[in-house]
Structures are given as C-alpha cells and as structure tokens.
Amino acid sequence: MNHRDLIAGCQQDWDHYIQHNFVKQLGQGTLDKASFQHYLQQDYLYLIHYARAFGLAVFKSANPAQMRASMPSLSALVEHELTLHIDYCKDWGLSEEDLVALPEGVATVAYTRYLIDAGLQGDLTDLYAALIPCALGYAEVGQYLTQPGNAVQAGNPYANWIDMYAGEEYQQAAYASVEFFDQLLAEIPADSERARQLQGHFTTATRMEIAFWQQGLDRSL
C-alpha cells in the first residue's frame, strides 16, 4: 500500500481539508485578517509540537537510515522554520510575545497531543501516518491554490503564503517525507488489520487539520 490508498480511504475528509473555506477565502484574498492572525498564532504553537513529533520519529527509528529520513524535517523546524514563522508573523503585526501569549486552542491541543500519542503508543509507521497529512496536505493546498480560478495573485495579501507552499522548496521537502512514508507502507497489505490501524491515524489527523482551519476561521479557543 502507499499514501494514496490512505487518502482514498478518507477521500471526503481529505477534499474538505484541501478545499476548506479557510483555504478558499485565503486564495481569493477575502479571508479576514484577524482569522489569519489567529491561525498564525496557533500554527506557531503547533509547530513546536510538530518538531517534537519528528524528534520522537528519530527516537522510534530502527536504524540510522530511518533516523536520517526524519532529521531534515526536525532540523528545518527547530533551526529555521520556527524563526521564519516569527519573522513572517511580524509582517502581520504579531510579535514573538504575541505568539506565546495566546493559549493553545482546543483544536491545537487535540491535534498536537494526538500526534505525540500516536508515536508513543505505536511505532514509526503509526507516527508517520499521523504526521503526513500535515506535510502532504499543505503541499496539495499549494497546488490547489495555483490552479486556474482557485486564487488571485494581484492585490492578495496572502499571495506570499500561497507561493511558499506551492514553491519548489516546500514541495520537494514534503514529498521527500511522503516517499519515506511509502517505504514504510510498502510491505503492508492494503486489506490487512495493520492497514486499517494506519488508516485510522491518517483519517484522524486529516480531520484534525479540518478542525485547525476552522479554528482559524472562527478565531476560537
């Protein structure tokens, strides 16, 4: 089996994730600024736990080759992406103090703790089944927003956000993680109990992503 089997196993949820109203409004430049700021604040808190999850992936690895597969994501998150996120948020009127002052929203808590729990209770494949919907989903969101009619560039305050996730650097990094995940899945029969367990992780994480978009849209905690 591979990641496409898991997407097919929750296709309706996956489509809702990729084409959520948050994404559509962002693409058209009509998303409320306060909603985007709320999303950015919660995303910063999410990224801290996301980095921890990749640290757990290194711990759960059976050999150095598997460790090396997760290290680029861990290093990028800790050494670069968190700092870049802080700098990006400054452009939206949010200081680093603002980012840490906002409490974690319910969707943020539920999602991040689920990621860690999936890894603690399961093995590396369980953890990646919960991690991949974020990396792959944002890559597909970037692709969706570059299709004709799905986004406007001129005068869109979110154009640089779209460019970031549609860009070659992010796309390559996301699909490198997906390729490793597919290696972990390769020997698992699609109709097995193990496949159903992994589908559960993948589907739940996808639903968490939907809730995360909605949290931003509603500006809820």
Helix coverage percent: over 70%
CATH superfamily grouping:
Heme oxygenase-like
The major pleated sheet works out as: none
The CATH topology is Heme Oxygenase, Chain A
Q: What is the name of the CATH architecture?
A: Up-down Bundle
Q: How many domains, in number, for the residues?
A: 1
Task: Say what oligomer this is.
Answer: single chain
Structural class: mainly alpha
Separation of the first and last Cα atoms: 37 Å
Question: Which CATH class?
Answer: Mainly Alpha
Number of helices: 11
What are the segments in which pLDDT stays under 50 over at least 5 consecutive residues? none
- From the spread of the alpha carbons, the general shape counts as globular
Strand residues, percent = under 5%
Q: What integer value in Å does the Rg equal?
A: 17 Å
Compute the average pLDDT. 95
Order of helices and strands: HHHHHHHHHHH
